[in-house]
Amino acid sequence: MVCFLSSQSIRVSGVTMTNVPQLMQEIQDKLAKGEVECLICIDIVRGSAPIWSCSNCYSIFHLKCIKKWARAPTSVDLSVEKNQSGNWRCPGCQSVQQLTAKEIRYVCFCGKQPDPPMDLYRTPHSCGEPCGKPLGREVAGGGGDGNDDDRCPHVCVIQCHPGPCPPCDTFTARACHCGKMAITTKCSDRKSMRITCEEPCNKLLECGRHRCERFCHHGPCDPCPVLIKALCFCNKKEEFLLCGEIVWKDDVGRTDGIYSCNSSCGQKLACGKHFCGENCHPGLCGDCKLTTCSQICVNMSQPKNPKQYDAFRFCSVAEAQYPWYQRKRVEVGRFVNLPSLALFDVENAFRIMGWLPVTQYHESTCPELVKHFYCNLQLEGDPEDLARGRELRITSWVKGVPISFDTQQLVELLNISNAGELVYCAPRERKFLTEVMRAEVSRQILRSDRWEMRAINLRSEPRVYCKIIQHNLVPQSGHYDTVSQLTQYLIYSICTRQPVCLPYIIIRTMHRATTPGLKGNLPYGRLVTTLLTRLYVNLEGERFYEDSMSADLDWDAICRMEMQGMQVSDEERNALERPLGRVATAAATFEAVVTEGDGNDDRMYMDVDDILPLTPQHTTGADPF
């Protein structure tokens, strides 16, 4: 049932504070003249009849009519819970009433006197006493925030009356928003009127360092907008930051920093030898957590006599393996002497195939720290169960700094583009694959003289590409088809347009280099040095290999000198350990692991695995190792 008010009824939807006195006077006049109608029975509400007035819309009803309405099923509000005390709707405004039909009583408008007597000298149904209703309801425009400063503390002082109470006319002195001045206004204008002194706020901001420069305003001050030059806690980075975004509340000039750069702290611990591996943090670093740090860590360049190893302690349980790593050589880069291919532009050939350089390594190599890295290296994850090893992770310790990275983090540390995946885009990949698999690739490329290359007429373009891959990724000795499993994986991948995951190959090669008893040197010298630098390992005071090569020495000369029993110094040998010029991605990434022969064997260029035939399992999703 929908009830509409008659033209003589009173509705207050949309009433503002400016017309409240007019509404109150209009209701009083209609009551005195007997012009108010009950919306239920459509009869005149007389001054002697008991009434009930809605506190929301101020409509007036006969008491017996409203009780009958409250009991009617049509007045029930279904949205209200049944166990609630009242669930009937006002006929005038449909507001839910929180009292039952039995609780409805005839009282005056202010609610103080029940059954007020009829008096011709005052408003019908009024007790004649001061209203006394609190005006502390939130004033118009208060926004519902419940702030006590926006509520009137006074009560209505006019005679008991129908309708809403008029706005408070009391004048009060209130402080402006910044608290500097007191401004006198009407109590009812405390929200609608902007109380401001029009002066700068000058309140201390949350940063605790600067003050608010806005003019006197309502509400909290904005975050500090001052741009300051601040140091991080570990004093490695200095950046311009918004003062309000810095969590640390302290002086910006403090020497130990005021924000975290989220990189490794790297500060020297109390032991004097190790470095803090926590992220950039305030305050002092904790104690050294290494259980074997009861003695000084070994500087890998110091011990020369094996008996001296007992006097040193390592940063991990791998100390017993160090003598084995001390005898190994670190491959600085990659050097392959192939004079027969000098007529081919290797770099252009790779660029034609779609292989491009992806990163710049450190200019030199720190062999002691590289050996330390491999000595403590561990591999997390099972390469047999993980597709292409994307979840593999390398962990190690170098000078007290924890080293940990997976394939994706390796990509980010080395800035390898395209997520480290290179795709061969030659248009004749099928012909290329056919030529690779044919028996003609088994022709020998070495003469009986093992140190001199024999120039071969490379008749077809696919074979040129095949030999470039063979000699510039993982060159082998002996027959041309005796390629490693990794080489077959690479050739198969690029021929079938499958991506080659370089970070995965790097991690697997690093792990295999730590296999006990495996001959060969430690690969990726420059790459590991680059990783240590970008992981904030302190390289100060360490010895480096320089990436330069003697003009009068080459591998042929070194080999002839050794065959004749001549001594070759480490400086002369290390001078040859350098990358192959500006070779592209593959040549710069897959560093050959060069092993020295025993005098009767050929000098071999090994990479990662034994020689195995190409099988269908060497696809992108299989482990090629």
Topology:
Elements: H1 20-33, E1 51-53, E2 60-62, H2 63-71, E3 88-89, E4 96-97, E5 171-175, E6 182-186, E7 227-231, E8 238-242, H3 322-326, H4 346-352, E9 364-365, H5 367-375, E10 378-380, E11 393-398, E12 401-406, H6 407-414, E13 421-422, H7 429-437, H8 461-472, H9 485-495, E14 500-501, H10 502-512, H11 525-534, E15 545-546, H12 555-563, H13 570-575, H14 585-589, E16 593-594, E17 605-606
Antiparallel strand pairs: 1-2, 3-4, 5-6, 7-8, 9-15, 10-11, 11-12, 13-14, 16-17
Helix pairs in contact: 7-8, 7-9
Rg to the nearest angstrom? 45 Å
Report the end-to-end length measured between terminal Cα atoms: 82 Å
Shape annotation:
elongated
Question: What is the makeup of the main sheet?
Answer: 3 strands, antiparallel
Strand portion: 5-15%
Q: What's the average pLDDT?
A: 63
β-strand number? 17
Secondary-structure-based class equals alpha+beta
Domain RING-type: 38-94
InterPro entries: NFX1_fam, Transposase_32_dom, Zinc_finger_PHD-type_CS, Znf_NFX1, Znf_PHD-finger, Znf_RING
Subcellular location: Nucleus
Pfam families: Transposase_32, zf-NF-X1
